[in-house]
Each structure stands twice: as C-alpha cells, then as structure tokens.
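Example S7 (structure tokens).
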C-alpha cells in the first residue's frame, strides 16, 4: 500500500472513531475524552473496536 493510501485509511478510521466518541461523550467532551482512557471504550464495545482499528491504521502509516 502506498503511504498516501495508508494516511487516508488512518484518517478515515480516526474520523469514524471520533464520531463514535462524540456520540458517547457529547461534542463538548469528545476532544478531552480522546486523550483519556475513556475514549477507548470498554473491552468488546463498538467504541473499542473503532479505537483499535484507528490505532492499527495509524501504526501502519507510521511504519512507512
């Protein structure tokens, strides 16, 4: 995969995760929650799945 494609994939995954974070914590607290453990969600939750998907996509991008 090209580096630009990896960046796009990471950006798409981040957007999906942050939409879920905002839905969970509200627009006001979403930004702060992102940098706290609570934005990861509980093990097995949809929020955790989106967080983990973003982390994997970002790691793939950074590894190039």
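Recovered sequence:
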């Amino acid at each position: 995969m090209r580096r630009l494609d990896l960046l796009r994939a990471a950006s798409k995954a981040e957007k999906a995760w942050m939409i879920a974070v905002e839905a969970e914590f509200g627009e006001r607290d979403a930004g702060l929650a992102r940098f706290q453990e609570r934005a990861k969600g509980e093990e097995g939750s949809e929020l955790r799945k989106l967080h983990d998907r973003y982390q994997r996509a970002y790691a793939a991008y950074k590894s190039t």
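Notes on this example. The chain has two helices and no strands.
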